[in-house]
Each structure stands twice: as structure tokens, then as C-alpha cells.
Amino acid sequence: MSDTATLLTIVLMASATYLTRIGGYLVLRNRTLSPRAAAVMEAAPGCVLISVIAPNFVSDNPADLLALAITFLAATRLSMLPTVLIGIASAGLLRHLIG
Amino acid sequence: MSTTQTYLPQQAGERASPEFWRGIVSCTPVLLGIVPYALVLGAQAAEKGLSVVEVPLMTGLNFAGGSEFAAIQLWTSPPHILLIVAITFLVNSRHLLMGAALAPFLPQLPKRKALPALFFMCDESWALGLADSKKRASAGRYPAFSLPYYLGAALPFYLTWVVFTTLGAVFGPVLGNVEPYGFDMAFPAVFLVLLRGMWKGMARARPWIVSLAVAALTYLLIPGAWYVAAGALSGLVSAYILSGDT
């Protein structure tokens, strides 16, 4: 049994996403954005992503903080898959060792 | 063959199916990269209480990984509908710019084809489609945007994403609570790699640092999931202010 709130969330998420996919094509194709509007739009996804993971940066578990630092370093030079593997392995190991 | 050609009509003397295959071939290397990402998302979604039907419903209707990771991270039972939808919109707001960048290559494409095709626009299919259009435009090929190529590059992504998030939801619970093994670190890992991909120098990243600081403080001081909205909004305000002095 799916509950209504979950289904509603999924449908609204999908609608919001589809709007972003067609919005640029429909609205912006014959216009140029002001530099300010473009700067805000460009910054938006990064601002959201970093806000979502902000709690990881202020964790009270030293093992998690150390694992995050290692993962951060990995992310600056490696692609998705090795970074994810390093993140998982370092968090798993450090939690057993010091967590 | 005739059905294929109904959906993928010949363009300017080019046969559609080789173009479709060309798209499939070009996206294959990147497909492998999204499989573990999809499995992790499916497993985490199942842990948050989404069913084996709800997971493919989300990943199939929404089809935007970053926003799905954010939504699952913030998922509660029952979910904060407005928060999750707003965050989804903000994470995916980059699509607005991506669609605008692709639009100049689409004048020959009727809206009844362009609008469904844009449903499948993700970071990867957009990048492949745009790069191919630019290459064809400079080679004098018309139309520059090859719809069958784009669909060949986009549809395997869609199928892989939906199938492997579902498999993650099916097999995730079999593994039980994965936190002691460190699997939850996959979230920040994925997000950090996505951020690295958006990195355009320190000056442009200043709003992210504002977001991080405000979100972290809000998280520590105010209970609930307000930290995402507070962090995102303060970052956008600072992007607006900072763009005035550069």
C-alpha cells in the first residue's frame, strides 16, 4: 500500500522537475538573462547540495569528520565511483577503529 | 522497422537507426558510472520506507538523480511535501539554463517532439546532445540537433536509472542497516563530486560557502529540516549581492 502523501510528493517532485526541463526551452530560448539572474541560477544547485550535506560537516563523531575529510579530498581529484567507494570504506573503517 | 521510423523519422536523408545506435554507443561508458549510484539511492529510499513500487515511480517520473538523493536524505514519514518539492525544483533549476543552451539547435523540431524529448534531458544526455549538435553545426550538417542520436544517448540512461534504483530498493533491505559499514557516506561523496563538477573557481563558489555555514549553524541551533532552506536561501541572496561587485 502506497500512502497518499508519498505519491503526492513524488508527483509534485516530477512536475517541478519537468517544469525545469521545458522551462528553459520555452521561456529563455529567445531571451538573454541578466548577468545577475544568471549568476543566481548558476549558484543555486550548488547552494542546495552543500546545504543538504551541511550536517555532515558538523558531526560530533570524529570518525565521521575524518571520513568526510578523506571523501572531500577524493572528490577533488577522482570520479564518482572511486570517490563513493573511498567514502564508504573510510567511514566504515574509521567508525570501527575510533567511532 | 516501420514503427521505429514512425517515431524517429528520417532527417535530411539520414537514416534514424544508425543515428540512434551512435547515441547508444556514445553514452555506454558513462552508464557504468551511474549503476552504483542508482543502487545506493534505491537502498536508501527503501530504508526511509519507500516501497519497491514507489522507488521506480519516483526515479521514473522525476528522473533527476541529484534531486532524488536530496529528497531521500530529507525524507520523513510523512514527508514534508513542500520542502521536498521546493528542494527538487532548486536542485534541478540548472535544467532551465541547460534547456536554454540547447534551444538554439532545436528550431526545426516541432514542440510536440521537443517537449517529450526534453523529459529525458539529464546532465549526461544534455552534454552529449549539445556537444554533438555543436560538432554537426560546425561540420555544416542539417539539422544540427539529431533527435535519434539524442534519444539513443538518453534512453539507456533512463532505463539504467529506473532498473538499478529498483534493484537497490529490492536488495537494500536484505542487507539490513548499512550505517555501521559506512554506506551513508555515499551521499556526501556523491554530492561532493557533483559540486566539483559545478566548480568554476573560488569567486563563483562563495555563495556555496555562505550556504554551508548558514545551513550548518541552523542545523546545530534549530531542530527539524530548516537548515536546507536556510542554507539554500542565504546562498542565493549572497549570489545576488556578490554578482553586483564582480
Automatic annotation (TrEMBL), chain A:
UniProt keyword list: Membrane, Transmembrane, Transmembrane helix
Domain of life: Bacteria
Listed InterPro entries: Brnchd-chn_aa_trnsp_AzlD
Protein name from the UniProt record: AzlD family protein
Transmembrane spans: 6-28, 40-59, 65-94
Keyword Transmembrane helix: yes
One Pfam match: AzlD
Automatic annotation (TrEMBL), chain B:
Topology relative to the membrane: Multi-pass membrane protein
Principal cellular location given in the protein's record: membrane
Keyword field: Cell membrane, Membrane, Transmembrane, Transmembrane helix, Transport
Any one GO BP annotation for this protein: L-valine transmembrane transport
Coiled coil: none
Recorded family membership: Belongs to the AzlC family.
Listed name of the protein: Branched-chain amino acid ABC transporter permease
Organism: Phyllobacterium brassicacearum
Upper taxonomic lineage: Bacteria, Pseudomonadati, Pseudomonadota, Alphaproteobacteria, Hyphomicrobiales
